Amino acid sequence: MLDERGINMVPVLKCVAGDSQIAKLFETLPFQCIAESRLNIISEHYGTLNYVMIKGATPSEISTLVSQTSMSIQTDINVIRRINLEAKKQNKRHQILLMVDWKDGREGLLTYEAVDYINEVMRMDHVFLKGLAFNFMCYRAMPPTEEDISYIEHFLNSVEQETGFIFTTISGGNSSMLTLAMYHDLGPINELRIGEALFRGYETAHNQRLPFLYDDAIELVGHIIEIKPRLNLSTHQPYMQALVDFGNLDTVVTEITPVDSKVKIVGSTSDLLLIDLDETHGYQIGDVMTFKLGYAALAHSMHAPHLSKRYLNDTGIDLMLENLNSTKENKILNRY
Ligand SMILES: *Cc1c(COP(=O)(O)O)cnc(C)c1O
């Protein structure tokens, strides 16, 4: 969909903790680069994957940032000056996108700083400005709107006029931009950085399911280790309780949902989940119980080194991908 609208998509892998099997899949897909927010994860894959760093760097990270990535999102002029010096030392080019804080309130230049920043970065000899980045719904729950798109367009026009710099990339946001992208023209935005939607199948502005994407690509599976009757202290009713062998250390329990809608989570401790089996009678010790994951649960579990991961290959999806790759190739051939 984004391709048809001339929007470049950058997959963001931070919620799968740089999982190398998943990262390797992206090598086989026609993306120019993938994005990560942790430099140590980028280092693990250095040499195999082309990464963009999407979080500003601390001074101690600059040397690794310059040697192991060719592009990053930056927000602080002192850090950018140091990146320029370091890139000169390493005889490298480093491209940056300047993040502008539009209304999310997390990171980025204040809009009135943009012109000064751009004027200075334009004069740098080893840092190259590729364009601007925007971000929505990371901190404040304020979805991007059509008005944002037209105000962004005005903003970009006046900055381009004042600096004489023409932006190559306008990286307009994350998964929260997808609903807008489906129904409206995104104007000057020609890139989106997509993480959550890719792995959970939801856009994040209104939490809507996205067509053609899976909401169960990554699931959490536990095993039942005990089933006994217990008393619910608020209702004074007995219920049949199963203990599942993971807990708060392994995921964010408030963000998981049992796939079996007849059972419900009644509580959790650091390493156990308490389940009310209700009217179900089929469960036995050793049985698996599967859960769908919200974003925090997904990210937390993927970062938990002691959870074992099992990868299932769906040949039907492989076929779909082959098709996607070949239609893309045809399109590229037709274009040039
Ligand atoms: C996490 C992140 C993204 C991806 O966000 P999703 O909501 O997962 O699509 C994009 N840009 C930046 C700067 C991020 O930190």
TrEMBL record:
PANTHER family: ALANINE RACEMASE, LYSINE RACEMASE. SUPFAM superfamilies: PLP-binding barrel. The keyword NADP does not apply. Keywords: Isomerase, Pyridoxal phosphate. Residues 10-200 form the Alanine racemase N-terminal domain. Its cofactor is pyridoxal 5'-phosphate. This is Alanine racemase.
